[in-house]
Amino acid sequence: MPTAGTKRKSRLRLVGSNGHWQNRAHFFAVASGVMRRILVDHARAKRAQKRPDSRQKVVLEESLAITGRNLESVIDIDRALSRLALMDVRQSRIVELRYFGGLTAEEAAEVLGVSLKTVNRDWSVAKAWLYGELNEKSPAT
What we know:
Number of strands: 0
Mean pLDDT: 76
Helix content: 55-70%
Largest sheet: none
Distance between the termini: 29 Å
Shape: flat
Number of domains: 1
Strand content: under 5%
Order of helices and strands: HHHHHH
């Protein structure tokens, strides 16, 4: 769970970053990025407290449930998303919006100003790439 200080900083980042939202979609786009940073910062802080000896297989799902067992997965996904952004920024943003922001495909399409078909195609490609990237790093069980 993020600390009160982390929550306060994040709230300030979100409110202080602009304060003048173009529309609902713009707000959720910014909120998704902030949520990603909050979750990754939290996972890194927890990892610093105790270093696990074994790594778990990472599964990318549309809904994110952060528990003590999968904090390392959040960091792995963040790193993989950064690598994906070097190849395809839109695919990376779609994953961030859907995975960290909890947006639907329709909402992501609105945020990015692209068609639903484009979001669905990029979502499928990005999930396949991330699956390969993340599971390549996890040892076979």
